[in-house]
Design brief:
Helices cover 44% and strands 13% of the residues. The chain is α/β, with parallel strands linked by helices. The protein folds into 2 domains: 133 residues, Rossmann fold, CATH 3.40.50; 87 residues, DNA polymerase, domain 1. It is built from 10 helices and 8 strands. Pfam families: Hydrolase. This is Haloacid dehalogenase-like hydrolase domain-containing protein 3. Belongs to the HAD-like hydrolase superfamily. InterPro entries: HAD-like_hydrolase_domain, HAD-like_sf, HAD-SF_hydro_IA, HAD-SF_hydro_IA_REG-2-like, HAD-SF_hydro_IA_REG-2-like_cap, HAD_sf.
Length: 238
């Protein structure tokens, strides 16, 4: 089937980049550097709890409620440590600011296998490329540090868009930035509802990155599933 695609949009976290180690380990290492002993597993649980609560209370970094994404993240980091028993407010502020900066760098992120090669090949084939990610303004810097920024004409974050996936309006903005109609575009991501289903609801094609053995989850036509990023080329080169 000729898809006649002109634009490919990409999710980032767990599609192109992943954290080098669990958040709890990164946070615990930073705490140790400040003379505080906190268990990584406890911190990981506290982070998930704090992040979840903050996301429900202040969706999309609290932009609609007057927060900045930086303040949103500083609060999440502090709450993660508070829930793990750290009470010293001065230490919490120092830790939060250091970790907020650290997560901008390639020191905490690694490129997923096949990502750089697949992006290069897609560009060689003449596709226009953009990012559509539920991320904050640090994403440009992270992509540059990880040597991926040059593949993309635009990087659209939920912070910049004002809407987070699965809201169709972030995909509409991406289509405007790419200058194409929905049926000329495909989105690639690892999340069934935020990436695969949301892009299709916006009239785009989409592919779901789902490693072999990750069979749990809704049925997706096999030709829309990517066991690895390298499988994309066979799906779109036809």
């Amino acid at each position: 089937a000729m898809l006649r695609l002109r634009l490919l949009t990409w999710d980032v976290k767990d599609t192109l980049l992943r954290l080098r180690q669990p958040v709890g380990q990164s946070y615990a290492a930073e705490a140790r550097a400040h003379g505080l002993q906190v268990q990584p597993e406890a911190l990981g649980r506290s982070f998930r709890e704090g992040y979840g609560a903050q996301s429900r209370r202040f969706p999309n970094y609290g932009l609609g409620q007057g927060l900045s994404s930086r303040q949103w993240w500083l609060d999440v980091v502090k709450q993660s440590f508070r829930l793990s028993g750290v009470q010293d407010e001065a230490a919490l502020t120092k830790l939060a600011e250091k970790l907020y900066r650290d997560f901008c760098s390639s020191h905490n992120w690694e490129v997923l296998p096949g990502a750089a090669e697949t992006l290069s090949r897609c560009r060689q084939l003449g596709f226009r490329m953009g990012v559509v990610s539920n991320f904050d303004s640090r994403l440009e810097g992270i992509l540059s540090q990880c040597d991926l920024r040059q593949h993309f004409e635009f990087v659209l974050t939920s912070e910049a868009a004002g809407f987070a996936k699965p809201d169709g309006r972030i995909f509409e903005q991406a289509l405007r930035l790419g200058g194409v109609r929905p049926e000329q575009a495909a989105h690639i991501g690892d999340d069934y509802s935020r990436d695969y289903r949301a892009a299709r609801a916006a009239g785009m094609h989409s592919f779901l990155l789902r490693a072999a053995g990750q069979g749990d989850g809704p049925e997706v036509p096999p030709e829309h599933v990517l066991p690895t990023l390298s499988h994309l080329l066979a799906r779109i080169e036809k």
